[in-house]
Amino acid sequence: MMRNLSGLLAPAAAVLLVAVVVAAVAGAWPPFVAVESGSMAPEVERGDLVVVTSTDRFPWGGIVGAAEAGAPTTFGRAGDVVVFDPPNDGTRPILHRIAFPVSAGEDWTDRADPALLDGDCATLATCPAPYDGYVTYGDANGGYDQSVGIAPVVREEWITAKALFAVPNLGWFRVGVDAAIARVGLLPTAVGFGGLAAATGGFGALLLGRVTGRRAVRDEREE
């Protein structure tokens, strides 16, 4: 019984081990972000899984905006893509690109791309900048987050991680887990998904064992 139990739990343990290793390398937890909108399309689509790192993790340290000289390329365009979570905003964390940093009191529209502005400094609630921070945007959106009302100027302490690369479609599992947690709670979700992973792994191991056994019997008969 103990041997069967360990075999069933092995897949779940393997998934946890991979997550811990990735987190140790990336310096962020969780080390994955499931994309739930198309605001970073076409390079990052809804349902993709994005691997992230700490913003100060070597060799990816620091935050560089798209308008800065020598900006790194992330998801096909210049500038870092970050995860930020404005407090008391009522929305889920946002995965968007850094446009440029701003200073408190600055009329940041003077150096903004006019195509991404929905008004001038006199009409925007986020201009002049109320504090030091960053202007951000989604690649597929038609304006800066601070221009169209998606987010205020992003304080550096709100930025929790920086994106490294995306894996297509693997984020649907994370989206499903989050939806289940929101609906039934953490413990029932953990038990349910853990049992599903264990059962799937056990079924796979059983199937593989049967296939291997049949091959062994066939080889013995042929000899």
TrEMBL record:
Source domain of life is: Archaea
Q: Which GO terms describe its cellular component?
A: membrane
Annotated GO molecular function terms are: serine-type endopeptidase activity
Keywords attached to this Swiss-Prot or TrEMBL record, sorted alphabetically, are: Membrane, Transmembrane, Transmembrane helix
Alphabetical list of InterPro entries matching this protein: LexA/Signal_pep-like_sf, Peptidase_S26, Peptidase_S26B
Identify one Pfam family in the record: Peptidase_S26
Peptidase S26 domain: from which residue to which, for each copy?
Answer: 14-98
Query: Biological process GO annotation list?
Result: signal peptide processing
Localization of this protein: Membrane
Which PANTHER family does this chain map to? Answer: SIGNAL PEPTIDASE COMPLEX CATALYTIC SUBUNIT SEC11
The protein here is known as S26 family signal peptidase
Species: Halorubrum persicum
Q: What does the record give as the organism's lineage?
A: Archaea, Methanobacteriati, Methanobacteriota, Stenosarchaea group, Halobacteria
